Backbone:
């Protein structure tokens, strides 16, 4: 951890009316309703829908489509798998599963089906190559129930790279049995990805993560009724905000890197002598505003695994870890070029703006205006007509070629895709320019890539959610980034709130020129300065790491010029070229640097290491 004057591096079917909390779409071939031909899943809780749903997955995974689950209980008797290949076509991700709502769209495992805990099986396995090439996948608005008498069951095995999320889902065991609710540890290189507004009830472990890359971000997660641990992290770089755990076992067991903030951990019967959080094997931990009750202490920071028990505690815990409330705690010393206090900046945090969806009958579907969803023909004029039509939501259910910058103004408040791309050959920069309009907030959502980028020269609030793009943010409105992947990002005099941010260009990744930038979960690749803060800016990075793949010796990891920076951040490098300078800071006329291995940082010796 380093701190410098502040720097601490420590669906096709008829549309239905929109209902708040429920999701629906206009009719389109790229929105595939699993209850309609050719799949005809019943969703009646009695008929076995395994074959119908598996066929729907086989034919639609990897094609930038939405598989839509209307209200119903879909009974299954085998694992539903996302195929890596189907009929000679490789799949590279780009898949969205969307339920009408978690309360109404339920995938339920038949009772007494997965009965062997030694050979666990999942209700759904979301694929992947075992390398970081399974992009832009989403599971949203669904409940995964493992039913009863299934001690060998896993609720959901999710996998995505660069961008991807599990959102607004419930994962439940009706009798408490089962191995894992949400399994993110089932294969290597999972992430970066986001888990947001997800609840897990029952199982031995509620959520599992593992291995050193690629980072996972969690926000507003609820865990209850686990029998071993609520949340187990075996080596990942994990950022967690808003964890609520109600358990008779430790809420969290972790090694690797854990940033846990704004959380409430409640211990029930049998938890009185246990710690709420277990950190072992020298893992790095940052806790802030963690409230515990019913546990023996908030954190055991000297715990190690033991074959005869879940853990054992050795030595003496560090000051500040007892709780019950932990205002702020760091497991390792901070490092600062100018000797700043070891404390985060506590920048104000705002939730990503959301609003009740418009009725799909009122959406402007760009294809209806003549746009080509195959990306073959130039769709510029047709898309601009849709944007100028007076609709609040403009829907892009395919891939689109354009030859001129598109203007987003008028009444448009939501530009929504299904995981496709715009301007694949980057003929235009930017592809979209936000203009003055009636809506205070403009949201771009669910595009695998907007190649030429988005420009916002206005003072309107801009939300980018589940998107890959470049961004030229030239206005002064607030900027919200949720599950965003892309190249360089520069902001000036703005307030920025980012959750699961992945930037992978060579050179300066993120420039904060005089603004306030708050990031929960920041993952990067390639060399160049990862965060440059100047002109009195304030930057706060809560968890994440650099996957340094090129040119680590050419630039400082962090640059702070007369500003305030906090980072709880790490590095993984397998190329033998890690960052040599971690921090370069200028205060007044003086400039100082922190090299790898100095202060409280770890020297790089191969494999994952955390500064």
Residues:
């Amino acid at each position: 951890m380093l701190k410098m004057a502040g720097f601490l591096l420590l669906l096709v079917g008829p549309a239905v009316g929109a209902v708040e909390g429920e999701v629906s779409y206009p009719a389109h071939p790229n929105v595939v309703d699993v209850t309609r031909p050719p799949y005809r899943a019943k969703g009646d809780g009695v008929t076995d829908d395994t074959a119908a749903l598996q066929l729907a997955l086989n034919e639609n995974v990897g094609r930038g489509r939405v598989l839509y689950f209307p209200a119903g209980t879909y009974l299954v008797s085998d694992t539903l798998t996302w195929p890596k290949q189907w009929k000679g076509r490789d799949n590279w991700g780009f898949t969205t599963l969307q339920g009408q709502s978690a309360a109404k769209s339920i995938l339920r495992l038949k009772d007494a089906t997965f009965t062997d805990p030694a050979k666990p099986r999942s209700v759904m396995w979301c694929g992947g190559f075992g390398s970081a090439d399974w992009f832009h996948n989403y599971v949203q608005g669904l409940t995964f129930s493992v039913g009863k008498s299934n001690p060998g069951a896993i609720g959901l095995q999710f996998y995505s790279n660069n961008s991807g999320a599990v959102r607004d889902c419930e994962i439940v065991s009706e009798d408490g049995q089962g191995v894992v609710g949400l399994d993110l540890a089932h294969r290597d290189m999972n992430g970066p990805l986001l888990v947001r507004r997800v609840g897990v009830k029952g199982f031995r472990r509620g959520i599992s993560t593992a291995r050193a890359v690629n980072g996972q971000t969690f926000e507003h997660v609820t865990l209850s009724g686990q029998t071993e641990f609520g949340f187990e992290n075996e080596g990942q770089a994990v950022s967690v905000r808003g964890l609520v755990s109600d358990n008779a076992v430790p809420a969290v067991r972790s090694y690797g890197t854990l940033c846990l903030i704004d959380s409430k951990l409640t211990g029930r019967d049998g938890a009185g002598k246990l710690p709420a959080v277990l950190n072992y094997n020298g893992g790095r931990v940052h806790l802030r505003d963690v409230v515990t009750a019913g546990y023996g202490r908030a954190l055991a920071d000297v715990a190690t695994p033991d074959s005869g028990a879940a853990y054992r505690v050795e030595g003496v815990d560090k000051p500040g870890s007892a709780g019950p409330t932990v205002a702020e705690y760091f497991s390792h010393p901070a490092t600062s070029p100018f000797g700043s206090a070891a404390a985060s900046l506590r920048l104000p945090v705002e939730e990503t703006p959301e609003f009740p969806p418009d009725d799909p009958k009122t959406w402007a579907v760009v294809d209806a205006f003549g746009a080509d969803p195959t990306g073959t023909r130039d769709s510029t004029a047709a898309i601009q007509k849709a944007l100028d039509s007076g609709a609040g939501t403009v829907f892009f259910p395919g891939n689109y070629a354009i030859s001129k910058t598109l203007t987003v103004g008028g009444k448009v408040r939501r530009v929504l895709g299904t995981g496709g791309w715009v301007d694949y050959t980057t003929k235009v920069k930017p592809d979209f320019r936000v203009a003055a309009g009636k809506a205070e907030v403009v949201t771009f959502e669910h595009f695998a890539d907007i190649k030429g980028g988005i420009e916002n020269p206005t003072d309107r609030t801009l939300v980018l959610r589940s998107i890959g793009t470049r961004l030229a943010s030239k206005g002064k409105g607030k900027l919200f980034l949720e599950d965003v992947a892309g190249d360089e990002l520069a902001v000036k005099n703005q307030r920025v709130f980012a959750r699961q941010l992945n930037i992978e260009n060579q050179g300066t990744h993120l420039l904060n020129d005089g603004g306030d930038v708050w990031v929960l979960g920041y993952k990067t690749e390639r060399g160049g300065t990862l965060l440059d803060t100047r002109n009195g800016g304030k930057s706060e990075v809560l968890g994440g790491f650099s996957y340094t793949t090129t040119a680590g010796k050419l630039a400082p990891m962090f640059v702070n010029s007369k500003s305030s920076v906090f980072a709880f951040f790490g590095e993984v490098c397998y190329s033998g070229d890690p960052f040599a300078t971690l921090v370069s800071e200028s205060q007044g006329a003086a400039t100082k640097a922190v090299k790898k291995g100095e202060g409280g940082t770890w020297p790089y010796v191969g494999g994952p290491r955390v500064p």
